[in-house]
Amino acid sequence: MSYPSKITTPNHSSRRQFLKTSTATAAGVLVPYHLTTSPARAQSKASRLQFALIGVGGNGTRTAPVGKEFADLVALCDVDSQHLDAGNHLLCDGKADTYSDYREILARDDIDVVQISTPDHWHAKILIEAMLAGKDAYCEKPLTLTIDEGKLVRKIQKQTGRVVQVGTQQRSSFDKFNHALAIIAEGRIGKLKRLVVGIDGGGWSPEIPATEVPAELDWDRWLGPTPSIPYRYLVNPKRDPKNGFTNGHTQFRWWYEHSGGKLTDWGAHHFDIAMLGIAAAGQNNDPVSVGGTAKHAVEFKDGIPVQTDRYNTAQSFDLHVSFADSDIDMNIRNDVDNGILFEGDEGRIFVNRGKLVGKPVEDLTSNPLPDDAISKIYRGMPMKQNDRHAHWENLIYAIDNRVLPISDVHSHMKMLNVAHLAGICCRLGRTVNWDQKTETVIGDDLAASMMERPYRDGYQIEM
Prior knowledge:
Elements (H helix, E strand, L loop, with lengths): L14 H13 L10 H6 L5 E6 L3 H10 L3 E7 L3 H12 L4 E3 L2 H5 L6 E4 L6 H10 L3 E4 L7 H14 L3 E3 L8 H11 L6 E7 L20 H5 L9 E2 L10 E2 L19 H15 L6 E9 L4 E2 L2 E2 L10 E8 L5 E5 L5 E6 L2 E5 L4 E2 L1 H4 L10 H5 L11 H13 L7 H20 L3 E4 L4 E3 L2 H5 L14
Parallel strand pairs: 1-2, 1-4, 2-3, 4-5, 5-6, 7-14
Antiparallel strand pairs: 7-15, 8-9, 10-13, 10-18, 11-12, 13-14, 15-16, 16-17, 18-19
Helix pairs in contact: 6-7, 7-14, 8-10, 10-14
GO molecular function: inositol 2-dehydrogenase (NAD+) activity; nucleotide binding
Keywords: Oxidoreductase
Protein name: Inositol 2-dehydrogenase
């Protein structure tokens, strides 16, 4: 997939951002990084961007403190009043403006960036409406719940020119992955033949009864675009009483209604690196098909779970992805080490967040990578630090220079489509074939129909 590296600032951007970007554009060159990003912003309060956090749960409270080093957090939104109050005191000493409806944040002219840390089924709707409202965004992965949502996200990004950083931090925050990609790009393992992607198994639950919705939670708004279903909760004796078996909050990812299970959870990280590795090797990473086997705790009919009272995403899987480069097989498994094995005709390496191993790695002692090898992987953009700050830092750089960030929506969706196709394969129990050129499932009308999901009345995307 090809896409421009520089993006256009739309007419409805804030005056402050427009003036800053126009100055850089008028000069005919990108403003040097050290003149535009966080150090300069820290010295001048007026130059710092204002951002809002939408979704004040686990990921929100983990990532927003990093964002605060680069921008001012001025507003919070959540449909759970306890989360909202606790997040306000934790992140902002109780001084932020708080909302239960994210649209009130999007209506504010003084907010430049939104961080979207809601459950997966809300990501695309909020992101699209944020871009249309003239906001740049940091959106947690997976970017969408369906393939067709991804098409719309990309269309609106191109239309508006907004900068969107997807929260696949492995592109920035863990140097082992960029080193692995550089090793592959330098030909140190030869031509890629096989990849094994380990992403762990899915969640398990007993029967979970429908119960009264907690007073602090607006369940209808939490469900949003997805079908109206009863709230379910059961205490898990092995965990904190507030973190039991449920179809809401932290356990939403085990329900196809709201997520794609491990395939779009860890898969959104590791498929990303795997497909970048194929591209780094100079080989074609256009997906062609996804097949294999999966096991669920419930039965399915035409891809829909028959039972509605327990976790329903795939608990185990052994899947194979084929690509336009027919020499490559990518095996997705839950019963191997979490991480990615790259196997070429001249060597192999394994990488995850804790290690990068293999003979080509050992050989770096006597034959190091070229000085610019990592820079090439990072598209020539500055990478000052190697932790979770790096991803937000890259977002600020992209906003300042109106360029695509390291984890842009276009390359993310090509990878995420593989995760969605894998989910369709698991739910139907058969191989799903894909045409990358038209971005369509081919030869299977039922599978093709699962590229989209209807939005509940009152929660359609506001265009």
